[in-house]
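Worked Example 4.2. Consider the chain below.
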Amino acid sequence: MISIKEIARLAGVSAKTAERALSGATKDKRRDARERAGKVREIAASHGYQPSELALALRRGSTQSIGFLSDVLTDQFLAAAAETIMDEAAKNHYRTSLKIARFDKGQTEEEIKSFLASGVNAIITSCVSRQLPEHIFHTLEKNSYPVFTLCGRSTFDFSSVAPDYSSALPQAVGFLAEKGHKKIILSLFDGKEYDNKVTENLFRKSCRKNKVDGEVRIHTSLQQAADLAGEMPKAVILYGKYSMRLFIDRCMQKNHIPDIIGFYNEWTSASALKFPLQGIILEQAENAVRFAVRQVIGELNGEKRCHKLFTAKFVKKEEFSCLKLPDLANQRLFDIQ
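Applying the procedure from the previous section yields the following structure tokens:
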């Protein structure tokens, strides 16, 4: 394919002028500039030149917009996150563009390209690291383009957020140990390799301190949660509200309900009240998502990338009634000014 330098030579202009012409930057300039730009585009078209959407996006000026790439919107957390991103972005005079990846790497790549082609200034994503297209994200990383991952650290050097279980998880282990359990299973879901490792190390340390046998399961499918129920364990700390639903359904089929502690946040914890849980590890979802918006805006103004931890807390079942659970849907529908 013809290079932009060759196009510039044929058009009798500098490479920088050719780049500006192909990016659309000269469309509102004076007549002679528009004529040169037109000649550049004509030569480019005649040679089948297709400028990189990524390169164009990185050269564009500010559109005062943030892209949010979510896998789905039917998930309670992700729907609430989308609302919160829009709200926090608007407070900072930014618009929000929303796209859905449906847990598909190919779809993720297409939506990221679409974001970049539209000139969004930053991207927040809930997609796990292995779902992100490497060739695009390495370029974004190299060019210091603001990207924030809500699912913990990724393999790329982008800002991220994760729960800090350093207080809550040992309390949960100690609570189960006090109930007389000699073995506790920690069930985590695949996709957060770095953060899962930190959680696993913390769990094993807590088990040793409480003189209990700790076992860690990293599940890659919901079926494994059902299989775990088939083993009829006596004490489980389980991550994932969908895994929890399936796990408890299978336990009930066997007339066996173990002592269970689940991971939730203030947007999803209402569903925990339906289950026979002994307690929950409660994460800070809203603070984390609002931080993500402020962080990418800060990076646009020269701030450094960072990984932020938000403290989770352990809540026993006796304390569930004291939880203040936000209802974003009713808040939007019924809050009258």
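The first strand starts at residue 65 and ends at 70. The chain has three domains: 4-51, 62-162+287-308, 164-283+315-322. Compare this with Example 4.1 before moving on.
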